[in-house]
Amino acid sequence: MKNVNIIMRKELYRVFSDKKLIFGLFILPAILVVGMFLLMAALASSLLADWEEHEPTVALYQAPESFMDYIQDYETSTGIYEIGSTIYHISDVMDDAELKVCKDQIYNGDLDLILSFPENFDSQVANYMGAESIPEIQTFYNPSEDYSDNAHRDILDQVLEKYRKVLLEQRVGDLESLTIFTIDETNEESVIQNDNKAQGKLLGSVVPYMVTILLFASAMNLGTDSFAGEKERGTMASLLMTPVKRSQIVYGKLFALMILSGLSALIYGGSMIFAMPLFYRTLGALTGQDLQFSAGQMVMLMVLIVTLVFLYVAAIALFSTFAKNMKEASTYVTPAYLIVTVVGMLSIFKGDDITLIQYLIPIFGPTIALKNIFTLDLTVGGFVLAMVSNLVVGAFFAWLTAKLFYKEKIMFNA
Amino acid sequence: MVEVQHVTKIYKLNKKQMEEQKAKNNMKVAVKNVSVTAHEGEIFGILGPNGAGKTTLLRCVSTLLDPTEGTILVNGHDTVKEGEAVRRSIAFLTNEVKMDAHFSPKYLFRFFGRLYGIPDDVISMRQKELFEYFNITEFEDKRVEELSTGMKQKVSIAVSLVHDPSIVIFDEPTNGLDIITARAVTDYLKLLKERGKLVIISTHIMPEAQKLCDRMAMIIQGSCVFQGTLEEALQGTHAEDLEDAFFELYRKTMEVES
Ligand SMILES: Nc1ncnc2c1ncn2[C@@H]1O[C@H](COP(=O)(O)OP(=O)(O)O)[C@@H](O)[C@H]1O
Ligand SMILES: [Mg+2]
Fold it and tell me: Which residues surround ligand 2, an ion (CB under 5 A)?
């Protein structure tokens, strides 16, 4: 155990005495994650601002008098209307030929919306003759243009809907007599949910994916260097020349790797959790409530992350030990990285229907377990099985690596 | 004491190696039934041309490789069954075993000292002595990667000797060194001998061996063709110096082969 400790401390010192490694492992990830989220937030808010500033253009075809009267109230100067907080430029279309030109403009994104009324709209409304003669207002817009899409939605909601009510009121007098029931008009407590679970669902779908990939990625460079790199540089042989048991060399290196990649992943995860509310707050999409973790959740999260790091580090060590140099090592480790990525992605979509025994499936079970911690769906049994899966497979890989260290063909290519 | 008893080492070649060495089958006999014995208080030379099998033999003695046949005893310990005990009493220096250049000489010395289980105060004493002898003290806190080739080699020697081994095995000790460093190294090997250690070196430079070695074994194509003192080598071949003696032995071996 003493030797394991000496070797582990040397490996740690190697990293912590190298400014470039410290930067790459611990500082760069934080900068990257926070920077990425800030950039996304900045882009999103400038997009929103852009939408708000845009003054949509609307063309009216055969607009009836009643409609012109209705929107009169909103007119600020000729052809310019302020509806909601948006300024609209509304113009008339003279004939069919011009209508066709307008449609082309919609297609090209030069015009945002056309409202086309039937001839004699007002008289059709006034002389209601039954279902046959209900007049139809046609709208033309371009959903792939954000401006057009927004204008269409807003005009429908804020203008046409209200205009319809005005006409309806003229026809039946008291509108309330038509109201059979309302839904949640005065009920402000309609939404009953665990806010933690709701946020957890969101975090739960991305965080396990991120965590497992980042854990593996941060262990990858260090692991291949610590095993294959040392072999390539000939420094491994100097360790093998000491009377220390080779299994102790392996375990010392593994522990150091676990600490380093665990730390790196923690920084990744930490900066992600730190940056996420920043992002949401800018968008105004979330109220900025913090996700509250219970002590139990915290413990389960930590245990799963630590054991998962152990598994990944042991797997990387095993593959790297087979390799003669760094290049070979990254060739061997890449397929494992792909598996981890794919399983991580699977976990975004699966998880609710996992059976207890499936938590034992290496990598898959524990990744799902990570996800289910966030949604409060992880049972103690599932947690224990996921942990056991990590430990058993990791220990097997570590044991195999130690065995390989005694093979001269592998260690000395002889 | 090192006793090499009927040692044969066969490498299994993979396809690429077979092409490189133009081998017909996948077995390369690098060392063939070699028996030699070396004692404390002498410098023992393993001599032979490149590819003779010198390094392979020394790697077997140092426990890095297991002999395919035969046994090697180091101070009575079997290199295969008691590798840890053997490694405790030897130092193996070769250009394939390197120090991690990221660390300082001082750090490396302490690290390896601890791995040998040596108390810190003893490590400090050893460090003072060795670093002073090899003039490392001035650079002890610099990273090894910042040092000159000669200084790196000296650091490597000093660190390998941290546990004061009774047997020092040195593969091509002056290979690639400038003349001054080479002299410092060979002088130190003599000093070790005077202190009663066994020093085993391998070399293909006969004049160097003639100056340095008390006894020697000549290896040609994996087989030991001579073992004895310098005088015995010269007498047996009626040669003026070791180089002539070597070529005489080489000629005879080739004759027997063909
Ligand atoms: N790892 C190895 N795998 C296969 N063949 C090897 C290996 N190492 C050395 N050899 C071969 O064994 C023979 C002896 O090599 P070596 O012991 O290095 O000779 P020397 O040190 O005397 O120059 C050479 O023919 C060499 O090509
Ligand atoms: Mg050699």
Answer: B 55
